[in-house]
Amino acid sequence: SRPQKVCLCPFLPVHPLKVSTCLYIIQHPAEESRVLRTVPLLAACLPPDKCKILVGRRFNEDRYPELATVCRNPNTLILYPGAEATNLEEVAAMSSSPSVMIIIDGTWSQAKDIFYKNSLFRLPKQVQLKPSISSQYVIRTQPTNTCLSTLECAAVALSIMEKNKSIQETILHPLQALCSFQLQHGAQIHHSKEHLLKNGLYDKPMPKNKRKLRRMELLVNNIKI
Fold first, then answer.
1. Claim: this prediction has a pTM higher than 0.85
2. Where is the DTW domain (predicted)?
């Protein structure tokens, strides 16, 4: 669906990756209208039955019986960082059975809204990734240097669950190409908000909302938020 000169098909795997883990991507409706999205690239790397995308803000058992069943499955994980989350590496080391992983696609505030306002998403075991890599999605501003796009989260998570590092490299390949094309055609590298604040480069007015201002102070002082 892109012009021929910036086609990303050559950077996708020739055949969908063979994985035992099934992803459920819970996508905020606002993501559908974004031109540069990572979920379509992720879906193009995986078999259709291993990457299911559900769009919405509210999910209940009546409207989404299949999702409710998935959330009650003891092998289902939800990737959402927090005090209650276990590092995914620890969970993967103790599990050998195929798993289902739920990933929320949206801005941090949108993901937070979806997670806390849908009780279904607190049924699966909550897991998180160690902040070991920086985002390569350099054409979109991230809150911190270690915040990852949905595709990057899925790539890292699948490589851990499948115990296969090459999965991460394969899924990141089209994202790297996308960013390269955009930079060649006038896009600018977007440093994280954390980087801009710490280096005095943040050129937008500081928020008047005390909660948002406090979050910025935490970023500058390197305190986990």
1. no
2. 1-187
Residue 221 backbone class (left: φ over 0; alpha: ψ -120 to 50; beta: rest): alpha
Percent over 70 (pLDDT), the chain? 74
For residue 195, give its domain range. 191-221
Whether the CA torsion 51, 52, 56, 58 is positive or negative: it is negative
Rounded to an integer, what distance in angstroms lies between the CA atom of residue 215 and that of residue 24? Answer: 30
Number of domains in the chain: 2
Would residue 132 count as lying in a domain? yes
What's the pLDDT tens digit per position in 1-10?
Answer: 778 888 889 9
| Measured distance CA(192)–CA(215) in Å, rounded | 14
Q: Is 127 helix (H, G, I), strand (E, B) or coil?
A: strand
